[in-house]
Write a structure and sequence with these properties.
By secondary structure, the protein is α/β, with parallel strands linked by helices. It has helices at 19-33, 58-66, 83-86, 95-104, 116-120, 136-162, and strands spanning 7-13, 40-46, 89-92, 114-115. It has one domain (7-158): Response regulator (Rossmann fold, 3-Layer(aba) Sandwich), CATH 3.40.50.2300. Strands 2-1-3-4 form a four-stranded parallel beta sheet. The longest helix is centred in the C-terminal third of the chain and has 27 residues, at 136-162. The radius of gyration is 14 Å and the shape is globular. The mean pLDDT is 96. The chain binds 4-nitrophenyl phosphate.
Length: 163
């Protein structure tokens, strides 16, 4: 949600129970480790209303916890038009999420949504693949991708805060 911190980041996927909660949990912990937790607020949302109010998928929680990220306090919500004014970064997990966000962004909304990996990853993927209908390795790959891109997003934020 919006806050009085200088910068704010919103991660967005479809259901807000797999990819974006994972990115939210990973990025929040990286902010703590970088000493930036009081500078940057973090949230996540889904473009669909399927899972509003639910905890992250148990497979996402398990995979994340094995790497030290606790997602259990998160609850799914749907992305809304006000998010483009509330957040400085609106980061879509895949191109369908990006199109859905562009469709609800008001013409005078502040922040343009971007593909998280296209902007911040050093890996070859441009999108975080949806793990929902697949096996356990899909959830591991989500973590691999968002950990890498989160490191580069931290660097971008450090530069922005120092500018
Ligand atoms: P997410 O994964 O967008 O990463 O949260 C999904 C979760 C649920 C569904 C699709 C994707 N679903 O169709 O219910």
């Amino acid at each position: 949600m919006s806050s009085s911190k200088p910068l704010s980041v919103l991660f967005v996927c479809l259901g807000n129970i797999c990819r974006s909660p994972t990115a939210h949990g990973v990025f929040e912990q990286k902010l703590v480790r970088a000493g930036l937790a009081d500078q940057v607020s973090v949230d996540s949302a889904g473009t669909a209303a399927y899972h509003i109010g639910k905890q992250p998928d148990s497979r996402s929680q398990k995979a994340a916890l094995e790497r030290g990220y606790d997602l259990s306090t998160q609850r799914a919500r749907q992305a809304i038009s006000e998010d483009f004014d509330r957040f400085d970064y609106v980061l879509a997990m895949d191109s369908e999420n990006l199109r859905n966000l562009q469709a609800i962004k008001p013409a005078n909304g502040k922040t343009d949504p971007v593909l998280f990996l296209q902007k911040y990853s050093t890996m070859s993927e441009l999108e975080v693949p949806d793990p929902y209908y697949g096996g356990a390795q899909g959830f591991e790959y989500v973590l691999d991708l968002v950990e890498d891109a989160s490191d580069h997003l931290i660097e971008d934020i450090q530069k922005r805060l120092q500018a």
